[in-house]
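Design a sequence for this backbone.
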């Protein structure tokens, strides 16, 4: 006859089934924490890229406005004497500046840290831990 109520405490389930259940629970908790980390990194990267894109658009707008105004000023200044030389010189200057900025952007893009590096590092550590156990 089984005791009901406040009799003897029930023993903790043991055996293969209980071990598999605990392993599954641990794996699920690990997976959830890794997905949360990845989600956080994706959101942070999205915000950073959005902010950089907006700043680049605003900067390009005002730089273009300034370049057009300065170009018109210089051309009008030399209108009677050397306007074609000035137009050619300014075109070369703009091409050189654009090429320099493109080279700088390329070097910056190659130096950037890998996206999701923290998640990848944590997954590598998890894999090493599992292989040692």
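Sequence:
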């Amino acid at each position: 006859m089984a005791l009901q109520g406040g009799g003897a405490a029930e023993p903790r389930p043991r055996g293969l089934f209980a071990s598999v259940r605990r392993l599954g629970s641990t794996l699920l908790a690990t997976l959830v924490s890794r997905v949360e980390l990845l989600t956080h990194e994706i959101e942070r990267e999205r915000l950073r890229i959005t902010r950089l894109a907006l700043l680049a658009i605003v900067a390009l707008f005002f730089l273009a406005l300034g370049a057009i105004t300065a170009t018109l000023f210089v051309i009008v200044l030399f209108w009677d004497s050397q306007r074609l030389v000035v137009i050619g010189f300014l075109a070369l200057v703009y091409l050189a500046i654009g090429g320099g900025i493109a080279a700088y952007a390329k070097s910056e893009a190659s130096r950037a840290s890998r996206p999701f590096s923290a998640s990848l590092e944590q997954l590598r550590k998890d894999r090493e831990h599992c292989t040692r156990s």
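Residues 16-77 form the longest helix (62 residues).
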